Here is the input.
Amino acid sequence: MNVGSHPPNIPMERTRLKSIIESLIFVSGTPLGIDSIQRVLENVDKMAIERSLDELIREYEHLGRSFHLVKVAGGFQFRTKPEYAPWIQKSKKTKAARLTKAALETLAIIAYKQPIIRAEIEVIRGVDSGWVLRALLEKNLIRIMGRKAMPGRPIVYGTSKYFLEFFGLENISSLPTLREIQELEERGQEGANSQGVV
Here is the structure.
């Protein structure tokens, strides 16, 4: 049966549409965007897909399961809830991916200042960043966006789509503002001070 040939506002068809969308997201190894879903469903309009996705998100939250449907990296993906991470890691015998302080620092600079060249990163950090950039490229957290039109034509860096997936961000504008980060740090420091931690 071609889902697109039936009006999605008929209750049974709406349920079927949601089930098909759910199955597409379930089998996708990466976040699945609305355009990709629409290519499969052809005649189904974007609003019907968006409505179905909103309903699925609400339904999974209401079920209170160990996983939920989230909007991440410009698409939709089923993810286990963070509180179950210790058991999942134990089951898979894996450790949570960790980044060094230097890698996190460099990644933050790239995320907030992109597009950016290595020399600009090194001016901010005050140290050579070549090895950190290589490591971040290997981890697919950053990407080469091209070359800057200036002497030497240096490489320009930016964050990758995987960066959004890794940090659970819908898009780059989902990053906390520098003010929000400062407020979090201040609250953390106040909490530490109140417990006598310096």
